[in-house]
């Protein structure tokens, strides 16, 4: 194994320290929170430039280390999520085309060439293996992790929240560099990650902190502004702060980065999020990705008004910024001519698509935009298939947004789609520093698919419940007539016959369940308070107190990061197999113990999986008392817990206390503190 670092020993050790942190995070947190936290944490804190080169493998730098260890953690602790990958034929076609194109690029570039004193190597068959690994690590793995680790509306909120909170925390380090100059990377890791002269802007500094360039910091901050604005429209708070205030604060932070392009992005995008419908936001995002895909055609046909852009930049931002823009545009033109010499599969690696001085062989071109890097290296096939992965989820969202039931989900999906559009558009002038666009694209596909599946499942269950109720209606009428006849017979026989026992009911004994509420997500320590809950049918959503009251001890109970244990006894009405199902956001465990048994049977164990759940059938005997324990945890955002049960003879229903058993005198009318808050 070889490695490179221009800094101190800690710049090497940071990657090894990151490994147990990543494993611990994937084990400790739910999939969405773990993935988002570890990705942004690694991106914002690990060193740039440093890499490891295992024998026979490509270089592993910051981003590769982040994605690989998130994948390893998911394989260890969230394997079920990894099985829920994209099933769409369109995605599979694009991925397959990208991989095949990467291999063909190698096999069509075996020729070496010389420019002046520089010898540029040809590709070798062995490079095809490297090309596949690079394609997987740079594009497919981020997209895949986004699509499987973010699957629900809860996950969508988690992603946007973590993004906004990361930018808020990072702003403290940015302010340090604004005052003292960009030195943090040198102080911690022993070297500057980029030329210091590029950090000087407008008589001050442009912070880099631990990212590759000041532009990367500014662009990530701009997307965080859009994330906060989307959360505001979705009526979601960020920690305990109103999302509107976080949006304003992050915009001020963004202005301090002195990045014109990122400021322009937010100036255009934030009003779109605040004042237009979600479908308009998705449409704008789709158009922006299409502009990226169409940009090479526009440049080749001279449809871009270069002279007018130069005059506008000089008038608005001065000669220095105009010169910078013209340098990029002129480079693009020359590099595009080079790329079109091998248009379909490109030139491959080793900077074969670069331009060199004819006599000295020195590099004479700068490849700034991600589009020209991809087009030159991989050709039209690689370019279209890679960026097509960003377009496909947006096209799918355009078609299916109207089927998303909740308005807040539609607004968050629309904001995410717009963020992807601006991330794609930024690849015209700049390189892809973070692979964030592919994570967001995968997350959009995963969340849309999961939300639609959950909505479809709920519609199906409601339809089944209506059908079951309709089938039982005639039986209920017949039972009513039979009951009236029986009552009349009993009244006649009252002097000589004993009273017949009441019919067996179904539900909780003892007037409900003993509930213990814990101010932590893992049922640790002593509960903050206990009470009797008649039923488990809660949807606290974003507004609560959880305890249902502002009095002590409920007043200070946390909005997020709590857990509940319900314990009690349950009586089935029929001697049949019962199934427990419903919704829990974030996690739930259900255990049951039969009469006379010493061991518990686990029916549901989804402690780290938010969303719908369903147990295997459990055989029960009518009229007998079974011990039941339900455990629930809430981490952040929406909070809901609604277990139901059903059998062959009983439609799905929320479990209520039983009546007419001699156990409960009566069932209280109204839900009190145990209904929906």
The proportion of residues in beta strands is 5-15%
Shape: elongated
Sheet having the most strands: 7 strands, antiparallel
Mean of all residue-level pLDDT scores: 86
Share of helix among residues?
40-55%
Structural class: alpha+beta
Radius of gyration: 30 Å
Tally of separate helices: 17
Low-pLDDT segments, ≥5 res: 486-505, 660-677
Q: Could you tell me the number of beta strands?
A: 19
Span of the ends, CA to CA: 58 Å
Number of domains: 3
What does this structure look like?
- There is one protein chain.
- With 677 residues, this protein is of the alpha+beta class.
- The chain has three domains: 1-83, no CATH class; 89-127 and 145-456, no CATH class; 506-674, Toxin - Anthrax Protective Antigen,domain 1 (Toxin - Anthrax Protective Antigen, domain 1), CATH 3.90.182.
- It is 51% helix and 13% strand.
- It contains 17 helices and 19 strands.
- Strands 7, 8, 9, 11, 13, 14 and 17 form a seven-stranded antiparallel sheet that branches. Strands 10, 12, 15, 16, 18 and 19 form a six-stranded antiparallel sheet that branches. A two-stranded antiparallel sheet has the order 1-2.
- A hairpin with a 2-residue loop joins strand 5 and strand 6.
- The radius of gyration is 30 Å and the shape is elongated.
- The chain starts with a strand and ends in a 23-residue tail after the last strand.
- The relative contact order is 0.10.
- Mean pLDDT is 86; it is low at 486-505 and 660-677.
